[in-house]
Amino acid sequence: MRIIIGNDHNGYELKKELVRYLKNNRYYLEDVGCDSIDSVDYPLIAKKACEEVLRDDDNLGILICGTGIGMSIAANKIKGIRCAKVSTEEEAALSKLHNNANVMAISGRIDKSLAIKFVDKFINTSFSNEERHVRRNNQIDNL
Question: What is the reported pLDDT for 125?
Fold first, then answer.
């Protein structure tokens, strides 16, 4: 599994902390985000990150911007991406368990320790193959 992380200027500081955490925990990580607080256009970073996520079914993405909303909207424009904007540990877990999300978007303004909890839940939760979740995800795919 590769973790692809992308951020804009508002997510730069939090990205640095998450990269450190993920590397310390021996995750294979690819950073496609910006490396400063200088303003950048987040849709281009979301696109680049999502293209990398789609290279392998086991890849996961983490996107960080000011609120996480813009990155989530941009990511969900890309066929094959299921991006969930998460604000709680439960949402991070359920985005994978019920919705088979392959990308998580978070706010760059949240506390580092909270973001790490979100990342852990997202990475370590698997999709439930319960019929109702499979059926609903197929319905989403067919929209």
Answer: 97
